[in-house]
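Need residues for this backbone.
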């Protein structure tokens, strides 16, 4: 069986390139990407595609018009639509009875099944639950307090941008408000750096975290999902710091941490006290590449940590 030829039409350069690479990296498809509906129609006229994936956010023509143009030119071409984040297909596209939907956010590891279903290469499966962010393992139980010093503190209470707590081994470091303000004042520059990193590693989510605050994000997960993942990463990193101190690590924390599963991994780098760069991504990206790219971007991000 020949390798299916797929065309991605998406005006978002970062997402379009990531989707193209995600498809090619599976080894099961040959994918190309164009940025406009006009270029997409030209490509369909010149070449035969088994599937065209169209983002509804096209700026030069309506997706419905592009779908009609493709069907007029190559009636046998399958068509898949990417709706806006968290939204359903517009009525204008529902009427056209497209072959598949690629919802945002999605995990790269889910692409083969979603794409094969749209091309009719597999039996239609029952709907799967909405994708959820990659969860770091639950932090270990803190070391028991010596009998001579019984524990009497209550769990930390997170309020706005500050962690309010009595002294506790599991308290997440509080990042000075001055640092948080400076990071947010440079959010546009930070977002560009995270976008550059995402083009290299194609992550589900890239987070810059200060304490329990999500400063900036990149990737396919929604803001709400990233905020949930932020808290989990902060808690997991603090638990790892406890382990580092217990083992006698001179810095009192691990510079890098990695949680790896069968399909996804969570990689976190400490840039400063309470400042974390965390990536949730599939395991098909070489770990050496992740470390190299994070080191380079981390050096650039350090300029905004005061």
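Answer:
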């Amino acid at each position: 069986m020949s390798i299916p030829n797929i065309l991605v039409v998406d005006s978002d350069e970062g997402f379009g390139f990531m989707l193209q690479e995600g498809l090619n990296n599976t080894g099961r498809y040959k994918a190309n990407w164009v940025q406009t509906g006009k270029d997409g129609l030209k490509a369909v006229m010149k070449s035969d595609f088994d599937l065209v994936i169209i983002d509804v956010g096209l700026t030069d023509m309506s997706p419905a018009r592009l779908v009609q143009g493709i069907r007029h030119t190559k009636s046998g071409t399958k068509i898949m639509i990417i709706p806006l984040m968290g939204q359903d297909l517009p009525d204008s596209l529902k009427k056209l009875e497209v072959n598949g939907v690629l919802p945002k956010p999605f995990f790269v590891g889910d692409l083969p099944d979603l794409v094969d279903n749209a091309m009719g290469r597999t039996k239609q499966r029952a709907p799967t639950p909405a994708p959820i962010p990659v969860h770091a393992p639950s932090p270990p139980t803190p070391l028991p307090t010596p009998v001579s010093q019984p524990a009497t503190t209550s769990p930390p209470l997170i309020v706005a941008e500050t962690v309010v707590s009595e002294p506790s081994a599991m308290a997440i470091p509080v990042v000075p408000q001055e640092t948080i303000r400076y990071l947010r004042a440079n959010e546009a520059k930070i977002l560009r750096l995270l976008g550059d990193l995402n083009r290299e590693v194609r992550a589900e989510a890239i987070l810059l975290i200060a304490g329990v605050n999500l400063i900036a994000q990149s990737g396919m997960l929604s803001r709400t999902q990233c905020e949930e993942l932020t808290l989990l990463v902060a808690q997991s990193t603090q638990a790892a710091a406890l382990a580092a101190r217990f083992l006698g690590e001179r810095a009192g924390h691990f510079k890098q941490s990695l949680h790896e599963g069968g399909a996804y991994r969570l990689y976190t780098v400490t840039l400063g006290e309470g400042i974390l760069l965390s990536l949730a991504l599939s395991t098909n990206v070489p770990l050496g590449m992740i470390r190299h790219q994070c080191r380079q971007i981390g050096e650039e991000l350090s300029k905004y940590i005061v």
